[in-house]
Each structure stands twice: as structure tokens, then as C-alpha cells.
Amino acid sequence: MTFTNRRVSIRDLRPLVDGGRFPAKASVGEAVTVGADVFGDSHDLVAAVVGWRPEGGTTWREAPMAPLANDRWAATIEIEEPGRYEYRVVGWIDRTGTWRRDLAARLAAATIEEVDLAIGAGLVREVAAVADATDRRRLSELAATLVDATIDAADRARTALADDVAATLARHDPRRNATTTEPVGLRVDRARARFSSWYELFPRSAAAEPGRHGTFDDVIARMPYVRDMGFDVLYLPPIHPIGVAHRKGADNAVHAGPDEPGSPWAIGGADGGHTAIHPELGTLADLRRLIAAARDHDLEVALDIAFQCSPDHPWVTEHPEWFTRRPDGTIQYAENPPKKYQDIYPLNFETDDPEGLWTALRDVFQYWIDQGVRIFRVDNPHTKAFEFWQWCLDDITRRHPDVITLSEAFTRPKVMKELARVGFTQSYTYFAWRNEKWEIEQYYTELFETDVVDYFRPNSWPQTPDILTPYLQHGGRPAFVQKLVLAATLTANYGIYGPAFELMLHEARPGAEEYRSNEKYEIHHWDLDQPHSLAELIGRVNAIRHAHPALQQDRSFRWHHVDNDQLLAFSKRAGDDVVLTVVNLDVNWRQSGRTWLDLDALGLSDEERFEVHDLLGGVTYEWHGADNFVEIDPHVCPAHVFTIRPRPSGAAT
Amino acid sequence: MTFTNRRVSIRDLRPLVDGGRFPAKASVGEAVTVGADVFGDSHDLVAAVVGWRPEGGTTWREAPMAPLANDRWAATIEIEEPGRYEYRVVGWIDRTGTWRRDLAARLAAATIEEVDLAIGAGLVREVAAVADATDRRRLSELAATLVDATIDAADRARTALADDVAATLARHDPRRNATTTEPVGLRVDRARARFSSWYELFPRSAAAEPGRHGTFDDVIARMPYVRDMGFDVLYLPPIHPIGVAHRKGADNAVHAGPDEPGSPWAIGGADGGHTAIHPELGTLADLRRLIAAARDHDLEVALDIAFQCSPDHPWVTEHPEWFTRRPDGTIQYAENPPKKYQDIYPLNFETDDPEGLWTALRDVFQYWIDQGVRIFRVDNPHTKAFEFWQWCLDDITRRHPDVITLSEAFTRPKVMKELARVGFTQSYTYFAWRNEKWEIEQYYTELFETDVVDYFRPNSWPQTPDILTPYLQHGGRPAFVQKLVLAATLTANYGIYGPAFELMLHEARPGAEEYRSNEKYEIHHWDLDQPHSLAELIGRVNAIRHAHPALQQDRSFRWHHVDNDQLLAFSKRAGDDVVLTVVNLDVNWRQSGRTWLDLDALGLSDEERFEVHDLLGGVTYEWHGADNFVEIDPHVCPAHVFTIRPRPSGAAT
């Protein structure tokens, strides 16, 4: 350590992921609050700025930080281009500010001495020396005035204490002996990383008529239906050749019949592996047309990346060193002893050829990126090495900052967070299993109100082809609607697996939390025009999401108290736009209660009268203050999605 | 980033101060729990150890970590010599453990295949290759048995599943592809850093007879009195020559009369500065005798380090560059505008000669260290640069690991924590001003139950020469006794300023929270033999502290609920020794309530009957479970200091 003149400490930077080992996440159109404890020794005032720039850039853009309380400082920044950035905080003793504070005290006590003004003149001259021409002239004049003994000392002090003087001095502070933090990484993703609505469908079940294997063209034909529901991401399960060896049959049967199509996640066969297309779906040219057609429908295609191989995958023979070989010479299949999954060969991340394996996997992403795909749902990332993901996602997003990856892990909390830290853009959550008020509150409080919000972007799914909870199995339409509204309003990113969701498919294979006749193992034909379909309601919910910026981000999330354990209330806010959601968690009975609103979170004052307009139900209520009555019948609609409107000042009270 | 085979992540290490920028603090005789999130990809088991060594050492001592819950792992270590250490965590895939777990599942399902045993044999051979001779033979035999087809496969599996096999395998795991954290600094102080009882007295007021300036010999004569109260640190305010220029008079008067002695904190005069001794106190030889005499009385002398100068300090002429010079050529005195402290010149840490200033200040410590002093109470450290302290305290404690420094800052919370981070051993606290139950709970929860406990060692003082709160001014004997018991049982480090404390001096200078006729500005004569003196009670409290290891550390601190806002209960525990303190905060009225004890913290089971024996009052009560009645009359004794004794199993219930 060398001898220094620094006197300011900067601690506890936010956002900061694992002490700065990983970049924090932000997105285009999202205000990021940078916070830090900034304080000096003694009682001198300090000043601080946050600076940011593209990683390794040469110049810093800066925003002044403002003090909150208890030596905490903050500034809000917004970055307009996706990419890698870094930020830092610079703090210094505010010498002119301290002098002016003391001068004001001396003025009030009438104890100003000539030397006090001379000290100020010296400080002002120091600032003038580094100011632009205009300000230099102004400040030089001020310095001269301060030591002009022909003017009354109190009058000279008052001149120095003018507000515009403070601003001019702050603008050019030479920051003597400033303290500068190490730069902290900030990854700025495009806006869709923050706000997206996913719809999953199996292309092979997309044929208009029963009995035919669906194709990419059938998916194109389905697009108006998906677009009309207001989704923006169309996610397709794996589109690759499916293995024949140990192929699974209907309902996960150990052996498939001769005509059974197998699971799309058993990747690889005679027609190729992770960069090939299952012939019955179409050609690469067809896929490219599909990607283009999606764009025309305001949709974006997400592909599935499942890094595992069927025994027929070309890599098994080309790169046996990427798999685990057993003492008997066979390749190790997936197991959860005593269960065996002989149709799947996991990759061995303890291979002697990590470079070969890692680059091959990275090249799979690259191949589909080259076809125009920019969104990937990644299957079971927690069964691959974290350091691989860190390298791979870093490599890809540095070259393609618009790539979005969704981590499909429903494993332990620390592992799910690690995957987000190492670079996944979005993450599946425990949403499907959080049904009680206390557990929903606990979970989303952790996601939104701790530092998890700086790296983990939750994407809430009520169900997936693998997950059909008892809640949806038995809750009926109220459960489906309630989960839809919760997913769509709790988190800015959400998705459903369709058409199973909108058709409220709810029959499970006995003993499993999984669909009966699961589409993973067989081709379905869907009759979309059923009267009970939720498609119209879904369209309304997505339209609300698109119309309300409040629902397009997570950082403003706030809970509101309701004195009924079946009623859950929370709000989000973006500028003037405020959305307050109240949900009845009871799928059977009408519930009522009294709110105790966090009025500050809603931008309301204590005694203000305001209107809450239910964007779902269309009804408007007049509310007043924190305490209001709310009642919800789940058989009418299990949720209110309120927008808040202060009452016009001329309205009767 | 290079390609690796690592599969284990280690995150969120504890203790960790500011991401590892500062060492965490531990002490001799103190168990330190090292915690970390340790997890791998997939479902394989992991194993982890914590390693530690002297900083920059060549070999690591190790302790195995055990899993708690939610992927959290921990190990407790204890270091026996003061000094600088570093620790790290190593984690790896527990390949033999995973294999054994899976083997047990296969055994239960009767699905063991030869290949499963052959895989195990290979893993066991890998361990054998790095084991000591005895274990190598055992493991080689096991490997041979595993592939011995003449033995029943289930029997072979059972052999591998024996407990001692697990221990042998774990002992020699080759830790393939292990993940190792960066080393984290750990500063181990001697035991007194953790557990100390301070007594402050002004030597010049120590004369046996009135009207005479006290000397070091008078302090020696006072030692039996201090020792009999059970203190172990005898802290002397500055012993240096006192400036004459602008000397303060009695009660902080701006001008001193000709015979007034001045404040010991106005350091420096014709007789020298920070390394000189005020002639009326004695000589350096006298001080050395005092230091030796203290040792004979089981006391250790603490000196005051106040880095500020009177206008008469030799540095003012020898090193004017270390002070701030004003435009009129004069040196800047201390100010809090409009208040002026013309008797004090602050040092300027923005001097052009930081090396000269820093080393001169460091040499002040060194000078007194060379005289045998090892404890320093540092006056107003927050008015000196943090980076100076970091350098100075690091430099000193590396050469003298037994040096203890107490930070005398009562400023803002973040600044007090920063001083602890940069290296102060102990810190004064807001204890004197925390009187209500909620604010005591809030404050000590922050100190003990957050990461603050890893670097900030609180030292609780009910009063100091500068601080006499309204609570003590008006609370009478109950307030003094209650603050004494709280200071002595809340924190392992505490102190009092005497004899003002034991004589319950409580008259304040009007308009100030400070003693009337403050000893800082005048010489007192103390009549110690007053019947109301708390000396005997203090002796009893300190004896309890010495007899109970539970009170000699802070890390085991736990609150206990009492359903009365005037009753505060908390416990500490060290091994079998448990101390539960219950205090009545109401200085006027008897208060009663029911406890809801944290039985786990007390080492008790749910329905256990036990005795609580009041070490202060001598009474024993029989309690049962969490819910017990407690009543305290502040005029008898405002606190119980209970030791907990499980009832002998033979006792009637």
C-alpha cells in the first residue's frame, strides 16, 4: 500500500453480483439504480458520481449521485444499446460545498472573518482553472469579489451562497484526491430480455387435420392464432432427428411401438444431431421461412437447446471421448438409480477434451444463430458444468448481444441462481408450485427485494409439458385464470405451454405431476375452437401487458397488505403508469377483505381519493387512502388488474 | 477463461469483509465458523474442506465441511496463535460418495449389475493410489472384492457400503477437478481483543490527598482498588505535555486561569509532543514501573493516542507542512462553524508529505510499544484518513500481533464500521444512548446477527468523560446498575470511566450531556470509600464475567422474548456454559412478564425442567420449557444474570 491523500471510502456497491465476479444485468429501457455508501473522514461534505462506458472503453459517461440517508448515495442510469458495460463510482471531498456550508453557519452567527473569504477565493480559483471559458470568467470574478474588502463581508458571503454558484462549482470540481472504485460489469440486454410473453407448441402437433405429422408450414399457419393471443415469443421444443434406440413410447413407456414418434428431447439419429432438422418437420429452408413468417406476425422464434444425445446421435461414434465410458466398454446412459434412461446419453464435462466439447456445443448455438434465431430455451442446464455455461454464454452474447437464453432448471435454489449468475438471460421459477399466499410472498420477495433481482430474471410458467401441478389438475377454470393473471402480472416474463393451457387440459398420468398422453411422446391433434378456450382472455391479459409499461419490468414490484390470507395484492409502477393486481387464491369461494395499500408505491398521497379501474373486468371503483374494501368471486373472475387514476381535481368528493 | 473440468461452485463465503478487501477478525480461543454455498451440477454429491494457514504459508491445515441445508456448508476452526492468516474453501465432486449413494439405491431395488461394481472398483483404486500404505492395502482389497464374481453381488455392495469405508475413501479423495476459492484474510487477535474489562482514570486525579497533582506512582497505589473490581485494562487519558496557547479552563471555558491544568487532549508543549510525558506525572522510568506494576496486578495499561496538536506542539514548527496553512499564513485550528477550537490544530491528511506524516504517526505507536504498551485507545479516529489507519494498523499489528486498538468514534454508523474494517481491534458503540427495548434489540441484532460481527468488536461504555446521558443523569442507582449489567453481559468488551461511574456522579454541565466540573479540564480528588459506591457490585459483575466463558465472546448471542416492553432478555453460550440475562429497563417500577425462551440457544429441550440461578442475587428458580414468569424490582436489583442448570435427572419433577 502506498501513501495517499485519499479521504473518501466507497463501499457496498449495488448492483454487484458475487462481489463483481459476474456482471449485473440490465436491459434497454430499464432504469438501473446504482447505489453506494460514500463517506469521508471528518465532517467535510462529499460528492460522488457514477460513471459508465462500454467495457474497456476510453471515456466515461457520468451521472451525479445524490445522498439518500445514512451515507447511502444513488443515481439512476439508463443504457440504450445492448452490450457489455462497466460502471464505477467516484467520490471526493466536496471542498467548495463544505466551505459554503461553513460559510452559511458563519454568516448566521455573524462570525465571518476575512480569512474565511480568502480561503473560499482560493478554492473558487482552483475550480475556475479547470472550468470552461464562460464559467472560468464567472468564477474568477467571484474569487475577486470574495477578497474585495470594499464590499461588506456578509454581502460577499451571500454572493458565494447563491444556488447557481453551487451548480457551477459542482460542475467543474477538480475532484482532488478522489477515490475511484474498480469497474463493475453490467450486461445490458435488449428489451425483450426484460419483457416477453412465451407460447410453447409442438410443431408436430400443429397439423390442421388429425393423423398427419405437423410441419413448419403448419406452424406458420398457426401463427395468427398465437399472435391474436398477444404472445411475442413462439417457443418450439427440439426440432432435431429423434433417436430410435431405446425410444420411449406413449406415457413414457419404456418401449415405443413401431409408429411412435419418440420424445423430441432424445436428440440425434441417422439424419443428424443438434444442427439437423427432423425430416418430417421440413427443411432448413422451411425453418427459415418460419422464422421470417414469425417476424411478420410480431413473433420471435425460440428454439430448444438440449445438450444430450440419443444413442443414435452422430457424436456417439464421432466423439466417444465426450461421453462416459463404463468399464465394460459401453457408454453411460442417464440414470437416477434405480431408474434408468437408456434413451439418453449425457455429455461428460469431465472429458479429457473440454475444449472440443465446449466449442462443439457453442457451435450448436452459433449454427442456429446463423439461421436467424436469437432466443433459446435451454433444457436442463443444471446437468452441465457451470463454467461451461459461463464461457459459452459469454462467448455468444459478446458476439450477439441480442441473444436471449432461458434457463430451464427447476432444481435447488442455489443452483438456479448460479445458472442466472453465469449468464442465462431469464430463468424458469418455482411459480407453478407456489399456491399459498405466504409462499408466493416469500418467493417473490426473495426474487424482487434482494440482490437476486440484479442477475435473476424470473419467467413464470403455470405449466409445461413436464409439469402439471395438482393445483391445475383439480382447480378448474378459476385455477387456470388465476395462474395466468399471476404469471402475467407478477413477472414481466411469463409463458404457457399451449394449446394445453388455453384448453385447460388437466388430466394427469396417475402418480405423476405430468399430463396424461403427454405430447412429449405422441402427436396430438388440437381442436382450438372450443367454447371454453381461454384464448380470448389470454389475449386480453397480454394486451394489458403491452399497454402498461408498469408490467414490463420487475424492479418496481411492491406488496400490499390485505387482511385475508386468500387475497394477494401487489403493484408495479413505471413513471405515471401503476398497475395493482388483487387475486383471490381460493378457487372455490368468494373472498373479501380490506386492503392496507402502500400508497407511496402507488404514487398516491395519504388522504387522496382515486379511482381503480379493473382492466380485466372493466369496472371502476372509487377508493380513498390505504384502507379499501375488495371482494372477488373466483367463478366470475379470480383477479382484478387495476390501473390507478387519481381523481380529477374538479370531481365531487 | 480457459477450458476446465471443474463442476463445483463455491459462493457466498463467510466470514468475508467487503468482498475480501479486509481481513475478517477472529481471536485466540474463539471458534470461527467458515460457511459457503457449495454445489455441483447434476445430482452428484459434493464434498468440501476449509483450509487455513499463516498468510503466505506453504501448507494448509484442513477441516472437513459439513452440509447444513440448502447447499450451505460449514466448518468450525480455531486458531491458537495471533497473527495474519488466510483461509480458503476447496470443493469437489464426491465421486465415491455418489457411487455409494447410487449403489445403496440399486441394492434396495435389487438392480445391481456387474458394471456398477466394476465402476466402483475403478474409483476405489483411484483413491488407493494416493492413500497411505495401510489404507492403500485396505482399499486395494476392497477394489479386488468388488469385481470378485465368486461373491454375491449384494454382499459385495454391502462391503462397500460399510461406514468405515466411507471414512477411508473421504480421507484420501484425490479431489479430481476440485474448485478452490481465492484465499480470504483472517486476522487472529489475542484473547483480550475479544474479552476485556476497561477502567479509565485520570492519573492527575489519582493523588491520595487533595490539592496535589497525581503521579504515575499514585496510579500504582490505586491499582489494588482497580484490580479488586475485576478490571483487566487500565486506560489512562493522554499523558503528554499539555499546550498553553488557548488552553481551556474549567467546564470548557475559553480561557484558562493561570493555575488551571488544561485538557490532556491538547497535546504538546515546551516539554515535547506525542512521545513526551507531562513532567508532573513522572518520568519515562516511572511509566515503565507503572506498566510493570500493572502486570503484577493482573492489569494491562492502555494509553490514549490522540493525533492532534496544541499550538505549542513541536511538530507545528518542525513540520508545518503537516497542518493546513490559511491564506493569512496562520495554521488552521479545529472548527465546527461557528464554534472554534483554537487550542487544537488538526493534522492535514491532504498534506503534500503523506509519507512523512503517516510514518511519524506510526512511530508514535511504535515508541509506546517499545515502552511495553500493547493497548491503545484511539481518540477521534474518524477525523483522520481511513487509508492512513489501514496502513498504520496493518504495519503495527504485523510486527506486533498482540497490539489492541480501541476506536473512539461515536459518529455515523457507516464511518464507525469503516474504522473497524480498516483495522481497529475494538470499537466504542452507541450503547450509552440505547435505552428502549426496541432500540437495544435493533442495535445489537445488527452488531451480532449480521456480517458486522466478522469485523466490528463492540465495546460498551455507559459513560465517558465526554458522555453523561440524561438516562444516567436522572435514572439514579437503578440506571447505573442496569447499564453496568447490560454493558458487561451484552458485549464481551466493556468499560467504565471511574471513579465517576462507581460513585454514580451524575450532575451535568447545564445544556450539555457532559459532566459538570469535567475532569478533562481540572484535577479532581476522589473519595472512594463512600457507602453508596458500586465498587463491590462491579467486582461481582466482573467476577461473573471471568467465571463464565459464555460472557467472554459475542458470536453466540441470542435474544429471548419477554411479553413486557420493559423487560429485555438475552443469552450467550460457550459449550456447556450458558448465561441468560434479564434486565428491567424501567428505573422506577417493578416489572413482570412471561418469557418465551429460545430453548435451543440455551441447550435445553422442549419440555425440560431446569434451574436458573441468579449469579448476582444468589436466588435459584425452577423453570420449565419456554414459558416462565419473571419479575424484577429495579430498587432491589434491576437485572438477573442467570446461569442455566439442567435439573439432575434424579430430582423430583
Which protein chains are joined by the largest interface, and how many residues does each one contribute? A-B, 63 and 63 residues
What are the low-pLDDT stretches of chain A, counting only 5+ consecutive residues below 50?
Answer: none
CA gyration radius of chain A, whole angstroms: 30 Å
Helix content of chain A: 25-40%
Total beta-strand segments of chain A: 30
Please state the overall shape of chain A, judged from the principal axes of the Cα atoms.
Answer: globular
Kindly state the mean pLDDT of chain A as a whole number?
96
Terminal residue distance of chain A: 67 Å
**Lateral strand order in the biggest sheet of chain A:** 11-12-13-18-19-20-21-22
Biggest sheet of chain A, open or closed, and with what strands and sense? 8 strands, parallel, barrel
Which class of the domain at 8-94 and 184-188 in chain A in CATH terms?
Mainly Beta
Strand content of chain A: 15-25%
Oligomer type: homodimer
